[in-house]
Amino acid sequence: MGVLHGVGASPFVRKVRVALVEKGMDYELDPVLPFGVSDEYKKMSPLGKVPCYTPKDGVHIPDSSVIVAYLERTNPNSPLYPENAEDFARALFLEEYADSALTPALGVLFFQRIVAPMIGQQTDDAAIATALEKTIPPILSWLDAQIAGKEFFVGNRLSIADIAIASPFVNFMHGGGVVDAAAYPNIAAFVERMHNRPSFKAFIAEEKAMFGGSK
After folding, report:
1. Alpha helices of 81-150 — where are they, by DSSP H?
2. What residue spans of the chain are helical by DSSP H?
3. The domain containing residue 70 runs over which residues?
4. Tens digits of per-residue pLDDT, 38-52?
5. Do 90 and 66 share a domain, yes or no?
6. CA separation for the pair 51, 17 (Å, rounded)
7. Mean pLDDT across the chain, nearest whole number?
8. Which CATH number do you get for residue 126?
9. Same domain, 157 and 206
10. What's the CATH number where 31 sits?
11. Are 98 and 59 in the same domain?
12. Quick check: 155 and 96 in contact, CB under 8 A?
């Protein structure tokens, strides 16, 4: 059984946890916080980020995208990457878009309203307003157009693109964010579908309890 290092509330850790569940793989979670990591942890994950996955003694795999790619190669059941070359490339891009653009944008609310008070910082209301009014809307508009008329983003089946995109919306929700279904009906419906999947639903309930919300 592999060990996944990182806290469940991280969108990147959650991405890997959901992938593990969807692929039917058991694992142990080692709750490493993503700040102030030890020198010992940096030997496993040189950038000091979470998650890092240890499938066996002496092997450490950092970065959520690399971890899921490894899981796919070593456990090809319930594939999360399309076989078609064009669909494969699109799934990879959407995963990168989710990691590099969507997650930082949606994560502003989570950091300012939940993380900042936990680490003794004041909430920056201006940063929240900028995210809600300027940064997030064009990203949601683009995603809304990409998922229009479809259940999944690529190839009519669940892929890493769907997991990567759905994960940061959990943090957005924890931070009090709501996707306007009138303005973005397609992505709002997608997020609701994904968050109701058993692989997401259990983790969302776990996190809500952690942050004092209802299950």
Report:
1. 85-97, 103-110, 116-118, 125-130, 136-146
2. 11-22, 39-44, 64-74, 85-97, 103-110, 116-118, 125-130, 136-146, 160-174, 185-195, 198-210
3. 2-74
4. 999 999 999 999 999
5. no
6. 10
7. 96
8. 1.20.1050.10
9. yes
10. 3.40.30.10
11. no
12. no
C-alpha–C-alpha distance, residues 194 and 32, integer Å = 26
Q: What is the mean pLDDT of residues 181-187?
A: 98
Instruction: Tell me how many domains the chain contains.
Output: 2
Residue 110's closest CA among 169, 65, 162? 169
Q: Domain check: are 109 and 206 in the same one? A: yes
Does residue 174 lie in a domain region?
yes
Kindly report, residue by residue over 59-92, the tens digit of the pLDDT: 999 999 999 999 999 999 999 999 999 999 999 9
Per-position b or e across 99-121, b if 16+ CB within 10 A of its CB? bebbbebbbbbbbbbbbeeeeee
Mean pLDDT of 29-33: 95
134: CB partners within 8 A, 6+ apart: none
Which residues touch 192 (CB under 8 Å, ≥6 apart)? none
Examine the domain organization and report whether 106 and 205 are in the same domain.
yes
pTM of the complete model: 0.96
94 and 198 assigned to the same domain:
yes
Percentage, residues of the chain above pLDDT 70: 98
Q: How far is CA 148 from the centre of its chain?
A: 21
